[in-house]
Amino acid sequence: MKILHTSDWHLGHSLKGFDRHFEHQCFLDWLLVQLREQDVDALLVTGDIFDNANPSAAAQKQLYRFLQVAREAAPHLRVVMIAGNHDSPGRLEASSPLLDLFDTTVVGQTGRNGAGEIDLDALIVP
Fold first, then answer.
1. CB atoms within 10 A of CB 55
2. 77 by DSSP, 3-state: which?
3. Taking the alpha carbons of 26, 4, 66, 121 in that order, is the dihedral positive or negative?
4. Using one digit for the tens of pLDDT, what is the confidence trace for 115-125?
5. H helices of 8-101, where?
6. Which residues are catalytic?
7. Do the Cβ atoms of 38 and 79 come closer than 8 Å?
């Protein structure tokens, strides 16, 4: 099994008023090539998918378009995204019902079981 691990995409980031959408798209395009050429089975994105907890519509669209194209390019690809300190865990998890259709798992919040302990079973992604 081949796993490609990335993090800190910071989609929606701007630098001194300069929109970095083009740079982010160049990275995502490069990543698509890697997914195909390396025949990756799983893409792991660990934190800071967006640059802030309230990402712009353009940043969200960029992520969802990437996931759509990645799925078309590699139908077997499994994606796991984990919220980081710049992300809104609830906002990321809100799209889970739709992202499940693309074999994309989102882990935003760490839940607790009935005993009040961390629900480790909910964090396991087969």
1. 23
2. coil
3. negative
4. 999 988 888 88
5. 21-37, 57-73, 89-94, 96-99
6. 86
7. no
Look at residue 125 in the predicted model and tell me its pLDDT: 85
**pLDDT of amino acid 36:** 94
Phi, psi of 64 (to 5 degrees): -65, -35
| C-alpha–C-alpha distance, residues 47 and 108, integer Å | 9
Instruction: Give the H/E segment covering residue 105.
Output: strand 104-107
pTM for the structure as a whole = 0.88
CA angle 23/26/31 to nearest 5° reads 130
Give buried/exposed letters for 73-102 (b at 16+ CB in 10 A, else e).
Answer: ebeebbbbbbbbebbbbebbbebeeebeeb
Question: What confidence tens digit (pLDDT) does each residue in 3-47 have?
Answer: 999 999 999 999 999 999 999 999 999 999 999 999 999 999 998
